[in-house]
Amino acid sequence: MKRYYEKVDMRSRKAMVGFLAGHFRYNTMNSWNRSTSYANCVKVHRLDLPSEIMDKAFEMLDCSEIYDVFSRLLRDWADAHDWEWQAGFNGRSGGYLVLYHGGLDWKNARTAKCDHCGKLTWHKKATPCTSDYCNGTLQVLEKPVPQIFSQPGKPVDQDEDFSEWDIETLRERVKLVQEFDQLCDQIVMAFVSFCENYDVVDAEISVSKCIKVLEPAS
């Protein structure tokens, strides 16, 4: 199975520069904007999976449950980095995990939350919820909730001359990229675990639908 994390000699400037300069990169948006960042290819056929897993791996991609787990891993990783660093899928088929810059916007933080539907707003005092058909109340929060933002159009360390970086800055960047690689490993391992422990089956579900009908005027 493919592994992305690799050890780097943090005592060696040459080793750290070589790691950063040689790391795989991919587009942060589309190829036309020519902005890239650290990335890893996580396409199924590039993961070196055992044949018994490959038989069901592609079908597994049609199941929403695995993406719920992926989203949680991505969210937890970004939260551990105060959302300054985030990771996301990119590529025509979402086959690449890319490292992005981001952050928390405290200036436009939400200040109230509905006690029924959970809607967040900027109200400064308790007021009826503004969502349709919700009878809840927007309660002022003890601590505002900042908005999360990302910068997918901006490159990360693109065309950097790492030889000009001081040793501590190099170590911090190597550590960050290694943690990103470990996140990619966790996502792949989660996917493999699904393949090993679950089968993909067809299931029929009933979906309720709201329609307009006519009735006699009262």
How would you sum up this structure in a few lines?
Helix content is 31%, strand content 24%.
Mean of all residue-level pLDDT scores? 92
Helicity range: 25-40%
- Give the number of helices: 4
Strand content: 15-25%
Distance between the ends: 69 Å
Poorly predicted parts = none
What spatial form do the alpha-carbon principal axes imply? globular
Task: Please provide a written account of the structure.
The protein has 218 residues and is of the alpha+beta class. The chain has a domain at 13-101 and 151-197. Helices cover 31% and strands 24% of the residues. It is built from four helices and seven strands. A hairpin with a 5-residue loop joins strand 3 and strand 4 (96-114). It is globular and about 80 Å long.
